[in-house]
Amino acid sequence: MATFPSIEKFLALRNLAIVGASRNRGKYGNIVYRDLRAKGYRVFAVNPKSKEIEGDPCYPDLQSIPEKIEGVVIIVPPRRTENVVREVDSLGIRHVWMQPGAESAEAIQFCQEKNMNAIFDLCVMVMSHPI
């Protein structure tokens, strides 16, 4: 389980990639994207099946994003998450938030072994809500 300081560190980041961003406004990949953007985060959509999400460019993978990404929110099935955390690590990104349902024991273990700030079992929209 994530600690409050690890959550604070993640929420203090400004440039976030949303892996699993969706064009469908009813899916969490779109809802999270819109929510974080509305809260002032600079968000970058990642989905190999889309060119644009909510009027913003969408990238096929993390390496295609032309800016430095500080953290990644993952909203994909657990088997894909396992590949995403490896890509995150290869790019030197140290902060990952696995939305509920995206996490897997393997992905969590990988992040822990790599000393990444990995948050799971918590919704980023709820935790980033002002108190």
Describe what this molecule looks like in 3D:
This protein is an alpha/beta fold. The protein has one domain (4-127): NAD(P)-binding Rossmann-like Domain (Rossmann fold). It is built from five helices and seven strands. The chain has a seven-stranded mixed β-sheet with strand order 3-4-2-1-5-6-7, with helices on both faces. Strand 1 (15-19), helix 2 (28-38) and strand 2 form a beta-alpha-beta unit. The radius of gyration is 13 Å and the shape is globular.
Brief descriptors of the model:
Rossmann fold, alpha/beta, seven-stranded mixed sheet, 5 helices, 7 strands, globular, 34% helix, 131 residues
Global outline: globular
CATH architecture: 3-Layer(aba) Sandwich
CATH class: Alpha Beta
Main sheet characteristics: 7 strands, mixed
CATH topology description: Rossmann fold
Strand content: 15-25%
